[in-house]
Write a structure and sequence with these properties.
Mean pLDDT: 83
Strand order of the largest sheet: 5-6-7
Structural class: alpha+beta
Number of domains: 1
CATH class: Alpha Beta
Number of helices: 7
CATH architecture: Roll
CATH superfamily: CBS-domain
Radius of gyration: 18 Å
Shape: globular
Largest sheet: 3 strands, mixed
């Protein structure tokens, strides 16, 4: 069975929390990648930023549904969600738009588990860590490349 170590990209393009959003867009386009790990000043993995995060900046703002009862307004959706959407749309640097709910995998994780995580958690850029440090990244294209090469299992 193939593992993360077998299919990951080891020349990882990373960004910092202070990388401007415009620079991020240029990096993703230039390198034809869909996302990048975010590393802090110590080189520690703190998040992931993707094309979807950039696209979210240009979407229409969804106003939460609400009802009015006896001069009171009751929101039917989380006000925090709306606040997060506004912050993301107004973001100017990576820290404003990146996902901080980090989903990563170990080098030994089998391909089928990686695919399951990507599908169930709806993530398409998975950092690969060893001893807590970034050692690679797996994107959708790495999975497709593996499948196209006929490497379904060992």
């Amino acid at each position: 069975m193939l593992t993360a170590k077998d299919i990951m990209t080891v020349k990882v393009i990373t960004v910092t929390p202070d990388t401007p959003v415009k620079t991020l867009a240029d990096i993703l386009w230039k390198h034809r990648i869909s996302g990048a790990p975010v590393l802090d000043e110590n080189g520690d993995l703190i998040g992931v930023v993707t094309e979807n995060d950039l696209i979210d900046q240009t979407k229409k703002l969804h106003i939460p549904s609400m009802i009015s009862i006896l001069d009171s307004v009751i929101f039917l959706e989380s006000q925090d969600k709306m606040k997060n959407e506004i912050n993301k749309m107004a973001g100017t640097v990576v820290r404003d738009i990146c996902s901080k709910k980090l989903v990563s995998v170990e080098e030994s994780m089998p391909l089928d588990e990686i695919a399951t995580i990507m599908a169930e958690k709806k993530v398409h850029t998975l950092p690969v860590v060893a001893a807590g440090k970034l050692v690679g990244v797996i994107g959708k294209s790495d999975i497709i490349r593996t499948l196209a090469g006929g490497h379904f299992s060992d």
